Amino acid sequence: MNFLFFQLILAIGLCLFGGWLFVSNWSRTRYLLDTPTSKVSSAAQGYVELAGILLDLSSPNLFGPLTGKPCQWWRYRIEEYSSDAKGRRWRVIEKGTSEGWLCLSDGSGECLIDPHGAMVLPARREVWTGNQRHPQGTISGSGSWLGLIGLGKQYRYIEERLHTGEPLYAIGDFRTLGGEQGFDLQAAKGRVVREWKGDFAGLLRRFDGDGNGRLDEAEWRLVHLAAQLEAEDRHRQRASLPLQHRLAQPDAALPFVLSSHGQEVLAKRFFWQALGGAVLCLAGALLMAWVLGVRHW
User: Fold this and answer.
1) Among 58, 70, 201, 224, which one has the highest count of C-beta atoms within 10 angstroms of its own C-beta?
2) Are 101 and 57 in contact (CB under 8 A)?
């Protein structure tokens, strides 16, 4: 009975995990295929897909922490081969990811990218082993496997990188700052008035000419005139700023993906992962049906 109960728990776990894997990866596949590729210079504000070349932006220059190779983004992981109650396995003992911004150019313009929260899938991935916690010198292929037979500790090093000049695919939330074009004077004036009302004591000091502790109709007209002038001045300042395009993590539960692989490669990858999730979910459902049939539930 206990074994059947364990099988039932396993079946439920397979169903839930497989279902989650299917839904999340199928959603990514559809978003990648259904979102048209935009040009940086003409992209709409909001969720967009871009494709271009990764430019050199890092200052000071970035280097891979394990290989020392120059790059624009890196992610690394150090694993130790060890044994515990679960058996012998690779255990992560150190990892890290760079946080510097990236810059994509597609010929029509440049877009700064904040990689925080992104699923980054680089083409450059190096894996090797050694007998020291941190690798020294150059990469030595597969390294020494003496640690696996008890003659010393064994470590595995994994480093992924994005390099200048590589293709860069990006899908996320696109915003343009500076160079303000459209201007709604009444809405802008209203925002200024609401901002000033947040400090009503300061508003009285500026516009309560008779000092009676309140603003009469004439004084409110002065407030609105001053707010209009302030709104126009702010608009002129923003309009004078150069355009700056930015891509970042979307607010909604939308995929945020950066990769040196193209859309088709990524969509195919997510499709097969979704298919794998569907198979796991189906296997869990069949196992559950079998267990329930054995128990006659």
Assistant:
1) 58
2) yes
Tens-digit pLDDT profile for residues 190-249: 999 899 888 888 888 888 888 888 888 888 899 899 999 998 888 887 777 677 899 999
Task: Say if CB 284 and CB 15 are below 8 A apart.
Answer: yes
- Pick from 113, 153, 108: nearest CA to 134: 153
pLDDT for the residue 88: 85
Enter the tokens of residue 131: 């007998």
How many C-beta neighbours within 10 Å does residue 139 have?
A: 17
Q: In whole angstroms, how large is the CA radius of gyration of the chain?
A: 29
Judge whether 132 and 20 are in contact, CB under 8 Å: no
Domain boundaries, the chain: 2-178+248-295, 185-240
Q: How many residues does the chain have?
A: 297
pLDDT digits (tens, 9 = 90+) for 103-130: 999 999 999 999 999 999 999 999 999 9
All residues at 6 or more sequence positions from 274 whose CB lies less than 8 Å from its CB, including other chains? 21, 22, 24, 25, 26, 29
Q: What is the pTM assigned to this prediction?
A: 0.69
